[in-house]
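R.M. (postdoc): so does anyone remember the format we settled on? I'll just put the structure tokens first.
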């Protein structure tokens, strides 16, 4: 059974999502307008929490909640990481990465640092998020710029000691040791074009969006069972998702997975239609397609 939560507006094109600290609320961002919406699992419609364009936030992608009660918002091509007080909604800080051409895509918090992926350059930025928000540093370069890696989703395992970073453009999942910054490819038993990711009960779930032969596309949610050292993984299940929805990222709340239906592909084709939605689904093994039928 699927429940759709509705975002108000005609030109939303949502992209990012993160869970609130209360375990029932969630936040969704608009790539096109920069709006940040707040939803609740018991309410069918989301509300505007931060209006479009406020604070120079003309685009918004990945988000995360830090340990000081702040919502961190990736500002896409603005180059800013925005920080908002969850209690009152006030802008606390606005940190710009030191790069002219940038596309801040996703963020994950480990302790007193936020790690931010850049889809325009093969860079992971690190921002101190202690009592005060610090300056962004170019923390790690992953791969070569000419590979167009399109760094995207990011999560941490091993209590924050290891980062997993999706490079959707090269269909690579990176494993990074936080202490040494040593990076390597995760060995998988199939192809994976990971976008947003979430860890649930030790398994990695991702929006798996790939272009196939002759320009066709396929959209899945894929489940990856990771080895204890996270150096390899096995794709155990894939669930088909409608191409018209084009889910970009995923969260887990109240026992269900929340999928952000961006409609990006439909937008490029001129067929996107309001209302834009977030789908809450239960991913049962018996409804999965075989990994062999995936890309």
């Amino acid at each position: 059974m699927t429940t759709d939560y509705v975002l108000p507006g005609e030109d939303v094109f949502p992209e990012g999502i993160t869970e609130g600290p209360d375990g029932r609320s969630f936040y969704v961002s608009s790539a096109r307008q920069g709006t940040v919406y707040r939803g609740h699992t018991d309410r069918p419609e989301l509300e505007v929490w931060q209006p479009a364009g406020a604070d120079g936030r003309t685009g918004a992608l990945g988000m995360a909640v830090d340990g000081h009660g702040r919502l961190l918002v990736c500002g896409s091509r603005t180059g800013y990481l925005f920080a908002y007080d969850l209690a009152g909604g006030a802008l606390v800080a606005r940190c710009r990465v030191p790069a002219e051409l940038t596309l801040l895509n996703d963020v994950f918090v480990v302790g007193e640092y936020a790690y931010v992926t850049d889809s325009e350059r093969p860079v992971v930025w690190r921002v101190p998020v202690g009592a005060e928000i610090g300056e962004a540093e170019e923390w790690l370069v992953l791969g070569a710029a000419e590979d167009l890696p399109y760094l995207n989703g990011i999560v941490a395992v091993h209590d924050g000691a290891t980062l997993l970073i999706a490079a959707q453009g090269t269909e690579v999942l990176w494993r990074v040791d936080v202490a040494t910054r040593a990076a390597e490819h995760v060995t998988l038993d199939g192809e994976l074009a990971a976008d947003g990711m979430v860890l649930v009960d030790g398994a990695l779930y991702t929006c798996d969006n790939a272009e196939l032969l002759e320009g066709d596309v396929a959209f899945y949610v894929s489940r990856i069972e990771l080895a204890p050292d996270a150096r390899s993984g096995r794709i155990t299940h894939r669930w088909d998702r409608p191409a018209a929805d084009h889910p970009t990222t995923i969260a887990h709340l109240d026992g269900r997975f929340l999928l952000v239906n961006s409609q990006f592909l439909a937008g490029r084709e001129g067929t996107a239609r309001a209302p834009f939605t977030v789908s809450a689904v239960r991913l049962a093994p018996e409804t999965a397609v075989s990994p062999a039928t995936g890309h």
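R.M.: ...and that's the designed sequence above, right after the tokens. Also worth knowing: The chain has one domain: 2-293. The chain has a mean pLDDT of 94.
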